[in-house]
Design a protein that fits this description.
The complex is a heterodimer of chains A (about 350) and B (about 775).
Chain A: H1 17-32, H2 39-50, E1 55-58, H3 65-75, E2 80-84, H4 91-95, E3 96-101, E4 106-111, E5 118-122, H5 129-141, E6 143-146, E7 149-152, E8 158-163, H6 176-179, E9 184-186, H7 193-202, H8 218-229, H9 235-250, E10 254-256, H10 260-276, H11 284-295, E11 300-301, H12 303-306, H13 314-327
Parallel strand pairs in A: 1-8, 1-9, 2-5, 5-8
Antiparallel strand pairs in A: 3-4, 6-7, 10-11
Chain B: H1 10-28, H2 39-60, H3 68-85, H4 97-116, H5 125-148, H6 156-169, H7 176-204, H8 220-244, H9 259-264, H10 269-277, E1 284-290, E2 298-303, E3 305-306, E4 311-312, E5 338-348, E6 362-366, E7 372-374, E8 381-383, E9 392-401, H11 404-409, H12 430-440, H13 446-457, E10 463-464, H14 468-472, H15 479-488, E11 490-491, H16 493-506, E12 511-517, E13 521-527, E14 530-536, E15 540-548, E16 552-555, H17 599-603, H18 614-649, H19 653-667, H20 680-691, H21 696-714, H22 725-738, H23 741-749, H24 763-767
Parallel strand pairs in B: 10-11
Antiparallel strand pairs in B: 1-5, 1-14, 2-12, 3-4, 5-9, 6-9, 7-8, 12-15, 13-14, 15-16
The chains are: A alpha/beta (about 350), B alpha+beta (about 775).
Amino acid sequence: MSEAGAATMTGMPDPGIDEVGARAAAIVENVETVISGKRDAVVAALTVLLAEGHLLIEDVPGVGKTMLARSLARSVDLTVSRIQFTPDLLPSDVTGVSVFDQSSRSFTFKPGPVFANLVIGDEINRASPKTQSALLECMEEHQVTADGVTHRLGRPFVVVATQNPVEMEGTYPLPEAQRDRFMARISMGYPAQADELAMLSTRETASPIELVDPVVGLEELQGMIRTVSRVFTSAPVKEYAVELARATRDDRQLRLGASPRATLQLVRAAKAHAAMHGRDFVLPDDIDALAVPVLAHRLVPTSRALGSHDHDSGPLIDAVVRRIVADTPVPIGSARRD
Amino acid sequence: MRRDRAPLSRLQSVALSGSAFLLLVSAVMALGPLLAGAGWWWLCAATAAAVLFGGAGLRAIRVPASLVPVGELGVLLLVLTLFFGGASSFLLLIPTADTFGLFGELLGGAQRTIQQQSVPAVVVPPLAFALALGTGLLAVAVDLAVHTLRLPALAAAPAMVPILVPGFLIEDGAEVGTLVLAAAAFLLLLRVDVRVRRRAALAQHDDDEVRITAPQRMPIGSTLLPTVGLAAAGLVAASLLTASTPSVSTSLLLGTGGQGALFARGVSPFLDLGRDLRRPDAVPAFSYVARDGDRPYFRLLTIDRFDGEVWGPGERRIDGDNAVAEFPTPTGLGDEVARSQHPIDVTVQQLRTTWLPLPYPVASVEGLDGSWFWDRGSLAVRSADSDTSGQQYRATMLEIEPTAEQLRAAGDRIPESIQEFTALPEDVPASIRELAGELGARGGTAYDRAVAIQEYLRGADFSYSVEAPVEEGYDGGGLDVIAEFLEQREGYCVHFASTMAVLARELGIPSRISVGYTAGTPTTKRVENVSVVQVDSQDLHAWPELYFQGVGWVPFEPTPGRGTVPDYSRPGASETAPAPERVPGTPAPTPGARPDLDPERQLSGGRTSAATNDPAVWPLVALALVVLLLLPAAVRSWVRRVRVRRIRRGDRGADAAWREAMATASDLGFPAGADDALTPREAAEALLDELGGVDEGARRALHALRDSVERARYGPPGTAAPASEEALVELVAALRAVASPVARWRARLLPASLLDTARAGRRAAARA
């Protein structure tokens, strides 16, 4: 499966924007048969997938983080691998290792679990920083280098990492620089009462994940991704994204603002968001919808602003981002073109 | 532009109103140099307080923000009724139709008093009414800026009005201290607003996070538009009001012209008087009933300054203490001179002037409408806020009956205060000097010389003519005219009067000229067995008055064939000559026996019409009000036409269609349309929420408009579809169908969308 997805062109034309919307809706619906009542999380995850970013799911154990990642992977017929991060996990356990083949009397590279379209990194903050950074390098470079040989990863390559809230025992919180590599962070939250009840009855006999069938093939997904990358972003919307990022850097409650990479990923995620709604151009509304998931996990509050929040800065940062969005003027845009 | 707008607590609202109140009353203080006294300021302050705190009270009981200004106007009406409504109101507070009539009269009076008074003006009731009304309207405007628009900086605009006014009227403008005070109050208002905003923003988030509110970003365009709009509306209103103001008449005696305006142009009142005398048809001026049979001259005004060309009145402004209920003792009148009081009832007919026709001197005047004051020097009576039309009043004449002996006893003594009435220019023509020398050489006291002048002018050499001076080109009262008149020896009252006045001054006798009416003609009509005497425009007259110490100003009659020669001025009059007996009900003998025998009756020409522009003003005012009322609708309809044209032309049509749709929604009272901080998508969602159930067609139309404006604004170049006018029409129809009839009328007459750019910022609420 090393070259899975790397074979790109098969002569199939890229889907139109409407078809992207329709397929995205089908995927969301399919995933929702497993994860009910978490539409926002599902949509965010798919958005990240279509934008070829990486997703960080942060929540307490047992709310379905892994289930979401796996059902998404199954719905689009991707190759999936799963890494359970533990404190003793080594970098080579993630990327793969060169072993000496007695028969050929040479070193051959044995790919690690990272060689898949969708890599689920469970409880990434339990691993040592060294192992974390091994994964994060792959995420950024889309390749693995071992013994001087570079091995390209497949396309799409999406890491869905889950993370327990940082105050849990035995964890190494991701440093700011590494959090920045994730396109978006979402949290699942506890299910509503009705959803939890329904879950009890559906899971009585079998895991519903087994019942999820792919609705979109790998090649179709690649086509969707290419279509997404062609979604038009007008100058006012780009300016708007930049304005938002700049506002986070100037904000008095924030110690660390959004990086230029954050701006880039915000716009890419907005393209995917637009395409999922069958639109071939980005609206300020797309940017607004993604501002919190895309920006919040990269920002660091001042200790003064953090104040009584102890270590859990999440709600504070979310509120700051929402305020910035509310305070930043929406560009009316030029109507010169009509 | 997105702004959080948190509702204010009552305390915060009152704090804002309080600082707005301080701003307004300190700004109103700037009118101080223009007005006499301080009572008016308390009135303005009370009105402003009632309106502003009334508004705060309305907000406290959760009256919708858009209705608060209306409520404030109601409060203003109640306050005005309380202060000015008097008996016409119901329970002191409730205005009736009569109250509005009264208000109309007060406004008319205010307009006149502004024309007639010079600074500092006496605050007569109409002026007080105008001040209270103006302050109240300014208070509504300030409140609109501070509370409704939440743009306290805009409150500077209404506050500037009273500050700017003095600059137009007096050289110095408003006092510096007042300006500093007003500026401080303005800063206080801004400060309070900032604090209130911060508190409100903090209170809005119920968690205990420390929040720092970002400074409001305010694109200049959003405040510019309403500001310019308000300023334009104000200018239009001002110019309309100016247009409806009656123009200053050129005629002194039949017009409404104020003193200042008239004489500032250097026009002699004599010329106007002559013009009136030459009119063919006599216009009834007024009639009077004198129970004691008096036939006095009725003076309008006295002119006592002579610069060689023009006679004019002294520069005396109205003094608010000089009410006509009581007059002082006339200047120079000594105790030994016989005097008696006779009531005369006057009914003004077509005379319209700010000067009151009265005998000289009078003891009191009763029954006048409006505010009338006597002039300290001449005791002439003029009004600050009304005019003579329709007046009915009782003047108690103080009849002075000096004897020739008393006049002779005056000698040549002239007190210091009267010296100015002997002033003559340097360049008195030689012929006048010589004549004065001749007459003075006859000897005797000042009184004897005065009698000699009168005798000379009434001599057979002089004849009366209202036409000759005009034909010969020497009309008026200047020195050259007098010299020419003394050559030609033909003229009318103004020539005789001014010649005698100049000759008297040349001989050292203080003199002045009174302008008014002769005694008039008795009619057959009788009131309580007393003949009604009719005075008309043909009775217009001018006569000299000379000053004698111990007696005061006494009239002379140098004009041959006009008026009555006073007994004391007849040659040979002695202290033994009794004053003629006056029997009640019988007219005094009138030499010249007019009208039948007066030659000038046949000579006069021209046509007169009393200037009664009162009825003409009210339609204009009504028209101005209607125009003002329709102005917002007109502006809105113009904006709509511009947008529809853009849609049809395809000139940013999607944008125009969307803006028009949102503006219509805003007009009809759906706040989603008012908030231009919302993206089209958010606005459409919010509007659908506000509409509740709406049919599928309207929903589709709204979405079509939304999609096309989104594509136009943010879509790839060249993909924008033409805007659909049909969708706009369908959506507008659906919106109007949902709105209440009241909302539909309000949308037409007071389209809220005109103010929307200043009111943006409901985004946070819409997203919540």
